[in-house]
């Protein structure tokens, strides 16, 4: 009986610790040891905001930003699926959500502020707090910080996947990837389709979907190599050589009717050219979205591209592309 009493007392203490978390102060979250896993589907954001501001200009600005179109998909899908609840409904069930935006408005706040917190009530969780003294200031801070909010959520989504993939890498694929002087977090389940000195291809297939990663490299001749048209031309040349469709004479190429979206991004101080666009099969009728990252490996004087694409005809592709993004964004040079 003493053992049972002690066990019950321990459970009561633990329950008390978890119930004492202060919603108004994310820094007061419990130790990660006590945290449950996150809940909610991938790509979903929970917004905790009073109805008045949610239906007003500030709420419209936040909602439109979160629900903007995911870039370079052949069928429109929102960047995030948004769930809205009021602060009074924010109970223990919702506190475990993967990504939470908590909006607080009141005279206790002297200015509009956006702050980011990890693992407040669950893990791996991102909590974003937006505080403002009034509705006008709230609208201003959302307009000013909306791009940063979006970028932080997307980066944290990639980090979640990369952490999972990093613990389940395939040794054979890791060895092949290293020949390009890079590391990638490609999880187990991918098959090796092509393995040459200048091109490698890995795929994971289901009866309905395909997710494929390409790596290719070629000698660096100067800054012109990173111009958009040169990158597209190289892409098309490699894919014509190494990819085949089901029909004779078919191969993958960049869709001409949808100009690719090109971004210069910075990763750990290194310039990366990102291209998002649509692929199609020449002499066939397949297609879908792709993303590529290209860097210059100065130590070897080589241009290295990592690319991923999705095929999921007539179905949603956003979450499949998020998985591909996590792999592409994980590219790092082994030797500088």
What is the domain total for the residues? 2
Helix content: 25-40%
Record field, number of beta strands: 15
For the biggest sheet, the summary is: 8 strands, antiparallel
Tell me the radius of gyration.
23 Å
What is the number of helices? 8
**What's the average pLDDT?**
90
* CATH architecture heading of the largest domain: 3-Layer(aba) Sandwich
CATH domain class name of the largest domain: Alpha Beta
Approximately what portion of the residues adopt beta-strand conformation? 25-35%
Structural class: alpha+beta
Distance between the termini: 65 Å
Order of helices and strands: HEHHEHEEEHHEEEEHEEEEEHE
Low-confidence stretches: 1-30
CATH domain topology of the largest domain: Protein Transport Mog1p, Chain A
What's the CATH superfamily of the largest domain, by name?
A: Mog1/PsbP, alpha/beta/alpha sandwich
Morphology call: elongated
């Amino acid at each position: 009986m003493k053992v049972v009493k002690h066990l019950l007392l321990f459970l009561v203490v633990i329950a008390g610790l978890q119930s004492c978390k202060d919603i108004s102060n994310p820094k007061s979250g419990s130790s990660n040891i006590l945290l449950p896993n996150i809940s909610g589907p991938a790509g979903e954001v929970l917004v905790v905001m009073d109805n008045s501001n949610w239906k007003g200009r500030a709420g419209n600005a936040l909602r439109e930003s979160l629900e903007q179109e995911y870039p370079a998909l052949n069928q429109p899908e929102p960047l995030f699926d948004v769930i809205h609840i009021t602060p009074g409904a924010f109970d223990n069930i919702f506190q475990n959500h993967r990504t939470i935006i908590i909006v607080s408005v009141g005279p206790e706040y002297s200015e509009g502020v956006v702050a980011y917190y990890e693992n407040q009530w669950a893990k791996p969780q991102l909590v974003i707090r937006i505080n403002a003294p009034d509705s006008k200031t709230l609208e201003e801070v959302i307009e000013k910080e909306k791009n940063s909010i979006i970028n932080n959520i997307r980066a944290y989504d990639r980090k979640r996947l990369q952490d999972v993939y990093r613990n389940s890498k395939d040794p054979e694929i890791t060895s092949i990837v290293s020949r390009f002087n890079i590391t990638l977090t490609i999880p187990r389940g991918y098959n090796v389709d092509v393995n040459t000195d200048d091109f490698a291809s890995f795929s994971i297939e289901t009866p309905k979907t395909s997710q494929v990663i390409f790596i290719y490299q070629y000698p660096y001749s100067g800054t012109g190599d990173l111009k958009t048209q040169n990158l597209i031309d190289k892409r098309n040349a490699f894919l014509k050589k190494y990819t085949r469709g089901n029909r004779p004479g078919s191969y993958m190429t960049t869709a001409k009717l949808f100009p690719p979206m090109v971004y210069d991004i910075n990763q750990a101080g290194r310039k990366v050219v990102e291209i998002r666009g649509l692929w199609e099969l020449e002499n066939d009728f397949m297609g879908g979205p792709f993303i590529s990252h290209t860097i210059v490996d100065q130590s070897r004087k080589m241009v290295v591209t990592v690319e991923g694409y999705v095929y999921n005809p007539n179905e949603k592709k956003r979450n499949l592309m998020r998985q591909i993004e996590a792999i592409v964004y994980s590219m790092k040079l082994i030797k500088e």
